Structure formats: C-alpha cells, structure tokens
Amino acid sequence: MCAILFPAAMLVPTGCSKEEVIDISRDLAVVVRVPADVDLGQRTPGDPGSASSQQIPRYLYFFTAYTPTEPSSAQPRRVSAFSLSNLSSDSWTPVENATGTVVNYLRTVILPMPATDEVMLYVIASHDPIPDLQAEVESVQGGAVIDEAYIGNLMLSARQSGGGTVSIADVYAGKGTLLTDKDKIDTNATIVCYHVAAKFDVMYNLSDDFRKGGVYENWRVASFTLKNLLTGGYYFKPAGNVPGDGEATTYTFEANEGNNFYGRFDTYIFQPAPTGGNALSFTWEIVLTDDEGKTTQKLENTSVVENFETEYATYFRLNVTVNGIGQ
Q: Which residues of 295-316 are buried (b: 16+ CB within 10 A; e: fewer)?
C-alpha cells in the first residue's frame, strides 16, 4: 500500500464593556476579507478545491484589544466586543482574479473605536451562528473583564455547549493592528480571515491486482476513516491545537458501487499541533470487503507531512494506492 500526503452596505455593531466608554463619533471603516471557492491552481492559503461548497458568512464577531489613554496598573490592556448577525450573502462583494475566478469576498463594517491611537482587532466570520462565541461577546458587553490572552485562547468546537452544531468548514478568523486616527490613514484597513479548520482531501484507488483476473478481484473498498481527529481548535493559533483528555473523534466515508474501486472525498478537520521534528501525523483506516460482503479486511496506516503552514489552517491531500489486502 502506497500513501502520499501533501501539506497541501455598512452596518454599525453595538456593545462595549462597562469598564470603558467608547466615543461613538470615533469610528473606523474596516474591510473583512474571507476566501472563496477557487480551483487548486488559484487557491488562497488553506482554501483549495473546486468541488468544495463553502458558504458566505452570515455572522461576524469582533474583539478589540487596546491600551487606553490613561491605563490602570491593574488592567493596562482592555477588551471590547461586538457582533453582527443575519447578514445577507449579497452584502459581500466578490473579488475576481485575472481569469474571472472569484477568490475573495469583502465586506466593509463601521466599527466604533476607543479613544486610543492603535488597537488589535480580532475578527471571526461564520455562516452558522456560534452560540458559545456569542456568549463570550455578551459577557464582555455585560462587564466581564478579560485580557488579550483570553481572546487568543478562544476555541471553536463543532458541537456547542448548548447541543447545537456549527459547520467548521465555514468559519474564518483573522487579526490585525489598526490605527484609529482617520487623519493618519489613507485607505480602509483590511483584516484577512483564513479557515479555522484545515481541508483534508483524500484520493484512493485499488491497484491492478483488484481488477478482473487479478489475485484480489473480488475485493473492493467499503469505507475510509480518518482517526484520532481533534474535537476543537483555536481560532487564532492553529499550530497550538492539542487533544484534551480522552477527546478524539473520527470521520468515515462510506463507499458505494460507484467509488469502491477508486474515489475521492474531502472534509474539514482541526489541524493538530506539530509533533517532534516539526511534523504532523494522521492515522487512517481502509476497510475492504469481498464481493459477497461477508468478509472484511482492515488496513491501517499513519501518514506524516512536513513543510506545512502554522499561521493558518493548511490544505492536505492524501493519495492512497492499495496493492493488497494484507495478512
């Protein structure tokens, strides 16, 4: 068995911490940029695949960290929070490249700014509402005092604490330092958001020994499972994702008559933190079955990849060729 793995209209949000007073007359136009579906040769980092079906964000969450003009020794940096919901898809502007392919979507938002010269703005965009994240926003708006490190440690989980689910394929995050004095800037600041989860693209096929007349002609692929997957990941530091105690999940692709000899599927996963030697490892399992469906054979392997991105979620492609059924 051979396997190759490649790292492959303006609205004003409301709300602020009770620990501060924001001068609403001091605002700033911020452009939020998220990637679009593009083909493999024209992708933005972490966002390949012409067969994917990503959806435009309908929810935006903002955290602003800044040093007030008169900081206190107890809390030198402060944090305010905002959110926008139920945004329409046509409120985003598609951006095409020279070939006419849409590579990004842009949306301009007017944000109130504190009376300070510079802020660090954290942005999370999602097609689905993220109740756990909205609770964090409302907590800050209600007077909870958090520091900037807390924002950096915010995590996304597909299953929310209230029992709902979020499509992690359609969640993006980005951050950037912004000047708040409009007299000192010429253009609107842009925050580039990348996928929080990594795309994992799998292509598998059986060797000629599985064709008619071959020694394994009666065997076909029944399923392909990605194992030991993380159940959550950081919004702003994908390289730090590690499993919790006893936390792991799997993703199983069930084959049918149309793709039990060769096939392809993709899913989004939380990119794990690098192991020793700055490498990532992924464990997977193929289940083969005979033509009567009475006998199965499991083939398990671990693929390792190097030279991957750590600032944003990577695109991985796994190519697997099965040469036999093992013993």
A: eebebeeebebeebbeebbbbb
Tokens of 260: 């039990």
Burial of 90 (0-12, 13-18, 19+ CB in 10 A): exposed
Which pairing describes strands 189-192 and 27-35: parallel, antiparallel, or unpaired? parallel
pLDDT digits (tens, 9 = 90+) for 152-205: 999 999 999 998 999 999 999 999 999 887 777 667 789 999 999 998 999 999
Asked if residue 24 lies in contact with residue 112, where contact means CB atoms within 8 angstroms, the answer is yes
- The pLDDT confidence band at residue 139, using thresholds 50, 70 and 90, is very high
> Do residues 48 and 38 lie in contact, with contact meaning Cβ atoms separated by under 8 Å?
yes
Cβ 64 vs Cβ 121: under 8 Å: yes
Joined together, the tokens standing for residue 229 give: 């997957």
Supply the DSSP symbol for 172.
E
Question: What is the phi-psi region of residue 165: left when phi exceeds 0, alpha when psi lies from -120 to 50, beta otherwise?
Answer: beta
Q: Where in the chain is the domain with CATH 2.60.40?
A: 198-322
User: Whole-prediction pTM value?
Assistant: 0.85
Q: What CATH number labels 198-322?
A: 2.60.40
